[in-house]
Amino acid sequence: MDWIGERAELDPRPGGLLLLDFGTIAARGTYTSIEPPHRVMFAWGIPGSDGLPPGASTVEVVLTADGADTVVVLRHRGVPSTLRVP
C-alpha cells in the first residue's frame, strides 16, 4: 500500500478478488492460481478501459530461493503495446 496504492482488498485464493486503487485508477482482477509459497497468478485490468478491461491481462509472480536471497520473476502478459512503458 505504501508503495503504489491507496486501497487494496485481496482474497488470495483461486477465484478470489483483487481490488487495487491507485489515485484515480482502479484495478480489478481475479486470482487464477495460488501455489504457496512460490507462485501466484491473477487476471486483471481497469474497469471502463477499452484497451485493458478487467481480465484482459495476466500477471504471474514466481519466487525462487537463491541461497539467502529470493529471485522474483514477474511476467505481465496481454498488455496492449499502446499501454506498455518503454
UniProtKB/TrEMBL annotation:
<feature type="domain" description="Activator of Hsp90 ATPase homologue 1/2-like C-terminal">
    <location>
        <begin position="3"/>
        <end position="81"/>
    </location>
</feature>
<comment type="similarity">
    <text>Belongs to the AHA1 family.</text>
</comment>
<dbReference type="InterPro" id="IPR013538">
    <property type="entry name" value="ASHA1/2-like_C"/>
</dbReference>
<protein>
    <recommendedName>
        <fullName>Activator of Hsp90 ATPase homologue 1/2-like C-terminal domain-containing protein</fullName>
    </recommendedName>
</protein>
<dbReference type="InterPro" id="IPR023393">
    <property type="entry name" value="START-like_dom_sf"/>
</dbReference>
<dbReference type="Pfam" id="PF08327">
    <property type="entry name" value="AHSA1"/>
</dbReference>
